[in-house]
Amino acid sequence: MTNEPPPPPEVPSEQSRALRARSSGTGLTEFGSAPLSFLYQAQTHSGQTITGSIEAVDLAAARALLESMQLTVMDLQRDQPTKRRGTVGESEFLLFNQQLAYLTQAGLPVESGLRLIAAETRRPGLSRAVQGVADDLARGKPLGEAFESRRGQFPRLYGRLIDAGVAAGNLPGMLFNIGRHLELVSRLRGAVMRAVAYPAFVLGALALVLGFLSVYVLPQFKEIFTEFDAPLPNLTQFVINSTVWAPWVFGSIVALLLLWPVLWRGVQLAGMDTVVADGFALPLPLIGPVLRHGLIARWCDTVRLCVEGGLDLPRAIDLAGDAIGSPSLKQDGRRMQKCLGEGNDLPSCGRLSVIPPTVVTTIDLAARQNQLASALDAATELHRQQAESRVGTVNAVLLPAMIVLLGLIVGGIVIALFLPMLALMNSVM
């Protein structure tokens, strides 16, 4: 392991950039100790405050490494990896954010408001998290950094948005905007769940019916047909042979649907939920458009949130991609940032994978006319309506399709079971 070079002399103060450093390999190779992660707040030689995390074998080694990088250490503490277990729930956080917005709007100091919320809430996890933020404020840590150091408990980038609200001198406005954004996300998530839950329920019911037939009905007909001692029609033979594999197939479908919440939770904890959604859900013919319009609406609203917080457009695009976590949206955002960095207009980026040309053109024109926030708000509402209307389309198409599929399968089984009997009756007559 090689030594890291010293940090760059200029770090933009508005970004509160987290610098990551690793300890030298001496301690690790001599004693075989695994590196630990430490959160720090330090000042550069020019007096600029920076925060971040550093890996070292112990607290003393972390402090020595920071000092060797010509940084003055102001705060240094162990980063607890178990904090993620106390993640604040979505509904809990929405209520907390609203309470904090109203208290700050009323003029109550933030630290006092946090302690008041922590004392009143009946949720132990939320109470401990909010109390920890208040304690950090009492030790002199900025509000945004206090939330950012608990990024495993609070939503992604909440601390950075808080920083933007404080820098703009409008923390209550930013908190209200965050609450509005969370309500939008919850509404879109509900639309996606309605689009997915209905076909999943019908598919599960279909699998149960076919599983029952393959386990309890078809084996009895198999015994009857064995006594005929006559060749069976191809369709009948296929249905009878399906008793070997059909119970496993239909049972697996039911088990997968029942275990899906647990499996999806594991995918989320592994950080692969957005990759799975982009790779498998977006290309689907009916559910894919619902997800796509939902992603666009969330992205537009997050960019609006950052712009109203005082961030420039490239930085807002960057934070929006990080907040949503979609790899496709991140790639689109990087292409847009590249065009802006090269001094080109956004339509010159070409066709993006998720963000449609209409949104790109709208952002470009609105930015030139200084109406970016209102244009993004209109784009958000448009794609939200598109996502919710597509849910109705999914239900309208899937219901007849599932009924027709069920009729074809059950009808085919009935015909296959009666074909030998009809042949036997014809031979007797």
Along the chain, the helix and strand elements come as: EHEEHEHHHHHHHHHHHHH
Sheet with the most strands: spatial strand order: 1-3-2-4
First-to-last CA distance: 90 Å
Helix content: 55-70%
Unreliable stretches (pLDDT < 50, length at least 5) are: 1-34, 81-86
How many beta-strand runs?
4
How would you state the average pLDDT, rounded?
77
Approximate shape: elongated
- Structural class of the secondary elements? alpha+beta
Question: DSSP strand (E) fraction?
Answer: 5-15%
Reported for the largest beta sheet, the result is: 4 strands, mixed
What gyration radius follows from the Cα positions, in whole Å? 29 Å
DSSP helical segment count:
15
Q: Could you characterize what this model shows?
A:
- Among the domains are: 13-79, Roll (Ubiquitin-like (UB roll)); 85-155, no CATH class; 287-392.
- 69% of the residues lie in helices and 7% in strands.
- It has 15 helices and four strands.
- A hairpin with a 5-residue loop joins strand 2 and strand 3.
- A four-stranded mixed beta sheet has the order 1-3-2-4.
- The longest helix is centred in the middle third of the chain and has 58 residues, at 171-228.
- It has helices at residues 25-31, 59-68, 90-105, 110-120, 124-138, 143-148, 158-167, 171-228, 234-269, 273-281, 287-308, 313-324, 327-341, 357-368, 372-428; strands at 18-22, 36-43, 49-56, 72-78.
- The chain is of the alpha+beta class.
- The radius of gyration is 29 Å and the shape is elongated.
